[in-house]
Amino acid sequence: MLRVSGLHLWRGDRHVLRNVSFEAVPGRCLLLTGRNGAGKTTLLRAIAGLLEPEAGQVTWRGAPTRTTRNEFHAELAYLGHEPPLKGDLTARENLAYSVGIRRPVTGTEVDAALARTGAATFADRAVRLLSAGQRRRIALAGVLLAHAVLWLLDEPATNLDAEGQQLVADLVSEQLARAGLVVAAVHHSLPLAAESLTELTLDAA
Amino acid sequence: MNWTWFHRFGSAPYMYGFARRWAPWFGGVALLLMLIALYGGLVLAPPDYQQKDAYRIVYVHAPSATLSLMIYSTMAVAAAVGLIWRMKVAHAAAAACAPIGAWFTVATLATGSLWGKPMWGTYWAWDPRLTSELVLLFLYFGYMGLRAAIEDPQKADKASAVLAIVGIVNVPIIKYSVNWWNSLHQPATRLLGEADMDWSMVWPLLTMFLAFMLFFGAVLLIRLRAELLRRERGASWVREVLS
Amino acid sequence: MKTGAIAAARLVAARDLRLAFRKPSQLLQPLLFFMIVATLFPLTLTPELSRLRDAAPGVLWIGALLSSLLALEFLFRDDAVDGTLEQFALSGQSLTWMLFAKTCTHWLLTGVPLALSAPLAALALGVPVPALGAMIAALALGSFALSLVGAICAGLTLGARRGGVLLSLLTLPLSVPILVFGSDATRQAIAGAEIAGPMYMLGALTVLGVTLAPLAAAAAVRIGLE
To answer: Which domain holds residue B153?
Structure first.
């Protein structure tokens, strides 16, 4: 469903992505591994359409994402390094806005998602007062709420404790069970069933 | 229609070779035409009825002004080509154009200022053309400033391309608004009367236009070579060329 | 089932309004700046109201321009820093439309208050009371056009070092037409003459801005997010 073919990308002088090709299918999680600077984040951003590759293309459901950008984005949830949250708003308000611009969402749904990711207890405090781990839990709730088919996750378990890491693994397997796709850049593998994992290693130039 | 000629221009080594071969020709013909035009304008053409010999600065002023605008348009077109067709050479060309255009704008302002002294007794007057040129200079500075301020070269290319396109759309609007402003406050003063100029005054001007355009072409090709070498310094063709 | 465009725009506006009222100092600073600038002119020119009146259109419009340059800083910067601007680009909504909604909200928060508080500065510069209404209208329209143009430059300088000064350098030449017609409208108003001409031109510039500027701003923001 998601196919990346012959992707080349330069950042400045560095040839970060060299002829990257792979296919991601529903029900399987693709893990991107590699050392720091190997291009995991770059690849995720290129798939999401935030970066334009010099060569190659990304197709979603057979159509190049460059031409069907809005439709592609409607089915995509992207979680980068920093959880995208406004510091002056509470978790509830943040999610009401960030999910609301994608699909109509009710307060009950937001509360349910926050509860699922263990963020319910601090859902009413301004985000700037929260720790990095707490913010990440809120961001994960946002990913859940997006009801997206494809998840692009950049080191989703950063700043989370052991219970949090398991949470990420659970959320991913639930997504896979819904016939969703997950592409995740990780340092260590996720505790998931081996048959639902595919690994792609990027080597640094 | 066979578009391969167009896409060949997108190849950096091809453009490098093209620039190396043609720059001397552009430069040589430009110099020749400049000498002819200068002879025609400074020696052969008669003095103006009102301005006597002071008008002769038009032979540098008017072509500089036209060129300052033409180069901005060229820059915007090259930037647009780079943005739409993703041609690195086009971005390189746009980058190479900017300082040349800025200098022509400075030349226009300087010659306009020098002309102002015998004409109005002051080194500066808020003539609509000079004012528009001043704003154009700021547009050039903005373009070059934006390029310099963005670290990533591809981002710098794309962002300055958007700026150049926005700028070229604005240039007619700015000119119109400056003309409006000027007409509110004083009767239209033109540096050169619209009365027909004698052909002996006109042909050196036209020749000078052509000479300046070829001069721009020559300098652009030279700068483009340097720009291409700098951008593609890791590529194998560069190593071959420099060895 | 995707959120409709109008609903998304309303959410964007609501979010920005809520954020603005949680940090009101950010709104007040450009306004205070405008007042201070308007005060500095008499201090550097002359205390005679009759002479200040001649300079008033220039003082008011340059003050408004400088104030909006300050305000433009926080149109996109906060969102770019915490990653929420990226979410706009990934939302499946038209980025052009979202940025237009943001720009309109920004104008409501900066341009409109400026236009409404300009009479204070104007009276201090000797502007006659009958001219104030027209002045407010011109400043409101002109500041909207400035916000639209400024949004493009704000998007372009997202990835730049020392973005603040560069933002001013980029916006100033592009704002010349707005300044020319806006100050002309103010001058006509002060003289008690017909203001329709320059106001129509200002309106035309704004319409052009509304049609084209958000497109350019969206292109700029996408490039800045790379």
So the answer is: 22-45+54-242
Please indicate, yes or no, if residue B65 is contained in any of the structural domains: yes
In a domain, B123, yes or no: yes
The nearest alpha carbon in chain B to A14 belongs to B234
The answer to whether A7 and A17 have CB atoms below 8 angstroms apart is yes
Could you tell me which residue, A199 or A76, shows the higher pLDDT? A76
Residue B180 lies in a domain: yes
Dihedral, CA of residue B13, residue B19, residue B20 and residue B24, to nearest 10: 180
**Distance separating alpha carbons of residues C154 and C68, to the nearest angstrom:** 12
Identify whether the C-beta of residue B102 lies closer than 8 Å to the C-beta of residue B223.
no
Question: Do B139 and C159 lie within an 8 Å CB cutoff?
Answer: no
In angstroms, the separation between the Cα of residue C220 and the nearest Cα of chain B is: 6
Q: Determine whether the interchain pair C82/A89 forms a contact, defined as Cβ–Cβ distance below 8 Å.
A: no
Q: How many domains does chain B have?
A: 1
As a whole number of angstroms, the distance between CA B191 and CA B198 comes to: 17
The ipTM, to two decimals, is: 0.92
pTM for the model: 0.92
DSSP chain A: -EEEEEEEEEETTEEEEEEEEEEE-TT-EEEEE-STTSSHHHHHHHHHTSS--SEEEEEETTEETTTSHHHHHHTEEEE-SS----TTSBHHHHHHHHHHTTS---HHHHHHHHHHTT-GGGTTSBGGGS-HHHHHHHHHHHHHHTT-SEEEEESTTTT--HHHHHHHHHHHHHHHHTT-EEEEE-SS--S--GGGEEEEEPPP-
Asked, for residue B5, whether it belongs to a domain, the answer is: no
- pLDDT at residue B1 tops 70: no
What is the distance between the alpha carbons of residues B223 and B15, in angstroms, rounded to a whole number?
12
Burial of B132 (0-12, 13-18, 19+ CB in 10 A): buried
Query: Which pLDDT score is estimated for B194?
Result: 47
DSSP one-letter code for B152: S
